[in-house]
Amino acid sequence: MTNQGILISGAGIAGPALAYWLRRAGFAVTVVERAPEPRPGGQTVDLRGAGRTVTERMGLMDRVRAHCVDQRGLACVDASGRTTARVPADAFGGEGIVSEIEILRGDLARLLYEATLPDTEYLFDDTVTGIEPAAGADGVTVTFEKAAPRRFSLVVGADGPHSVVRALAFGPEHDLVRPLGLYTAWFTAVDHGLDLDGWYLMHNAPGGLVASARPGRLPGEIKAGFSFRSPPLAYDRRDPDAGRELVARRFAGVGWEAPRLLRAMRTAPDFFLDSMGQVRLDGWTRGRVALLGDAGYCATPLTGLGTSLALVGAYVLAGELAAAGGDHTVAFPRYDAVMRPYVTRAQELPPGGAAGYAPSGRLGIRLRDLSMRSMTRWPMRPLLAGQFAKAGDIALPDYGLTAAQGCPTRP
Fold this sequence. Notes:
Layout: E1 6-9, H1 14-24, E2 29-33, E3 44-46, H2 49-57, H3 61-66, E4 73-77, E5 83-88, E6 102-104, H4 105-116, E7 121-124, E8 128-133, E9 140-144, E10 150-152, E11 154-157, H5 164-169, H6 173-176, E12 177-189, E13 199-205, E14 209-215, E15 222-229, H7 240-250, H8 258-267, E16 272-279, E17 285-286, E18 289-291, H9 294-297, H10 306-323, H11 328-346, H12 353-357, H13 362-373, H14 380-389
Parallel strand pairs: 1-2, 1-11, 2-7, 4-13, 11-18
Antiparallel strand pairs: 3-6, 4-5, 8-9, 9-10, 12-15, 12-16, 13-14, 14-15, 17-18
Helix pairs in contact: 1-4, 1-10, 2-10, 10-11
């Protein structure tokens, strides 16, 4: 069994971004993805700070902008639809609550995937089932659900907060993920009769409930969401029908457009419900295995920095491997050293955390609306500017990945 370069698990955002930079450095790369093809659609993701810089270095910014979702900003509404607070998208230099550059997750993943072709091997409709040290200690043997076992020099888990690679190499999820006590369901709604006028609308109801709707990229398309605070729930996140019933029960009787969105949820093909939690690890590498993006340092959507962390982490991990000539014993500690301060800052939740996003009572909702109305004025503005500036709080090294540098497939 010959050594076959670097394996990346996950073809979302972090995986293809890493594949792009590794191929620039001359490494042989294989990406395995459980889905049968790149996942389309999805919700909007923010492109901020250093994430924008990495995108520009990839030469993809013009294409990203061409696929951006047009949003005027975030507006909070009461049960009757009256606006109670509003923050425009151009606040804080376009990097506030709603970023100036927002793109559907599936669109960004597709752009990154296309940028890796034709030099990257993809194994769709498959997943990793085992990782074991190879004979001779010069690699690892990886087993798959469908494909035959193969040997790789390194394995990178870029497979999200429920990472299979992390579970295999680092331990069970319940030991490594800190739950926030918040669940969120997302789905796409069409033919809904709801006019957003370009705004991301959010309605809070007592009990820690949040109903939201934001523009999609296609005419008449809405990306809708339901969030609620709760202790850990026993449910199967892979069972969408059970998830729909759970959400419907929670939001029964909620005002604004919640009833209309609940009806749309019933037939939405892309519905999913998941808990929010942060992945906190003392180290993102173990032996010849590394973690990237949400698999290693999920910050949760409350921070708006998950996409930037994935893009920046991919750039740094590939760059350090290139700088070390493929020697992971040198590159992995450097990856941690460069990324650790950035990740630590990015994982700091906005004021109030989950309780600030989904207040339990009416007084908390009114106070949150008051704080949002004050965001762009002194003294709130300078306080919040630091929160939003975290996206650029890293000095990105220049690894010189502008041309192939050979093909060191045996780190």
